[in-house]
Predict the structure.
Amino acid sequence: MLFATLKCFAIRPVNRVTLVGAVHDIQTGFLERHSVFQFTLTCSLLDFQKASAVQVKSTAPKTASAVGEDVDKYVSKEQYAVRCLGSESYTDALKGFLEECCIVRVVGRLKTIEASDGGKKQRFPCIIVEQGRWSSVSLLHSSRNQKRDWQLQNLLLSTALVE
């Protein structure tokens, strides 16, 4: 009973984030002793303050194309590197169902990684998804027809729970 109560109050990472975006630049490899599946996640963000200020100023009705152009002005895109660390079976399962331009939800730890570029050290944001540690990658939409998507999600969950 005591352990079940303590398990509910387990310390979770403070820098845990949830992002939804499109997958690009898929790479696989090894980092130290972990198998790594890495991709770039492109997220679209809407600046609500600027968009609401425009709606208050203009009260005249607009056409659909004009509204679309106005929205594009206030949408910005952010890119994050996502590193999925775990066993080879976990990264193989990710490789099996993730492809370019599919939409995914990523839950992981936000971390800045330092990279040197021509003598300069630059920091860039990276989401770390570790197998079985309060983090996950879920497929929301794919351009290819996936009739067995639920089986792939179950395979990922089972490999995440094994380790």
Observations:
- Residues 18 and 107 are 4 Å apart (CA to CA).
- The mean pLDDT is 76.
- The domain at 15-46+77-162 is CATH 2.40.50.140 (OB fold (Dihydrolipoamide Acetyltransferase, E2P)).
